[in-house]
Specification:
The chain is mainly α and about 100 residues long. Helices cover about 70% and strands about 0% of the residues. It is elongated. Keywords: Membrane, Transmembrane, Transmembrane helix.
Length: about 100
Amino acid sequence: MSYGSAHLMTAMLDGLRYVLWVVVSGFAVVGAAFYGGAGVASVWQKAGPPARRRKDEVAREAAEGIAEIEAYLAGQEPGAEPPEPPPAPRRKRPPASGEAA
């Protein structure tokens, strides 16, 4: 093996070693970001208001709305039908071809 081909082989192996180190360090960074992000998200969730309180607010608001509907329906006469709504206004049709405007 000549000196030039040995030098080329060494340079190629050095390049391959560099690429492998970049790939391995990339995997390490991606893994750290994945697991670190999950850890940060769990701490962030624990620091926020508990989910039960948020659901209780929604449930309370829904119960108030249902109570208002029931009170409205209790004030209506049983069997009485609601009044007919007024007819919807109709739009004017554009004149067809051959008609005067």
